[in-house]
Amino acid sequence: MPVYNKLVRDRIPEVIESTGKKFSTRILANQEYITELKNKSFEELEEYVQAENDKDAIEELADLLEIIHALAECHGATIETVEVVRQLKAEKRGGFKEKIFLIEVEDE
After folding, report:
1. How many domains is the chain partitioned into structurally?
2. Are 16 and 23 in contact (CB under 8 A)?
3. What InterPro entries does the database record attribute to this sequence (predicted)?
4. Does residue 102 fall inside a structural domain?
C-alpha cells in the first residue's frame, strides 16, 4: 500500500472510498495543519511552475488559491481581508503589471 503522508482535499477520502480501496487518514492539529498547508503550497507552486499550457497553469493557480483561502482562515482572516491588504500594498508599492525587472541599484 503506497504511503502518502500529505494533506489532501476534504473529499479525497470519499473519492478513494468510492473505488473500494482501503485507506487511513487522521485529522491534523492546528499547528500541523498550518505546516502541511505550507508544504502543500510548495507542492502546488512547483506544479504551477512545471505547467506547460494555460489550462494546466490555471488549474494549479486554483489549487494555490484554495490553499491561500485555508491559510487566511488559519490566521483569523478571510480572503476578503487578504484582498484588502493586497490592494493597499498595490496602492503603496504597485503591482506587477508593468513587468519591471530591477537589474541593479547604486550603493551609497
Report:
1. 1
2. yes
3. MSMEG_1276-like_NTP-PPase_dom
4. no
Please state the pTM of the whole predicted model: 0.88
Q: Give the structural domain span for 59.
A: 12-93
Give me 38's grid cell: 505550507
Distance CA 99, CA 101 (A): 6
Mean pLDDT of 61-87: 97
H/E segment holding residue 36:
helix 30-50
Q: What is the pLDDT of residues 11-45, one digit of tens each?
A: 999 999 999 999 999 999 999 999 999 999 999 99
As given in the structure block, the three cell numbers for residue 4 are 502518502
CATH number at residue 73: 1.10.287
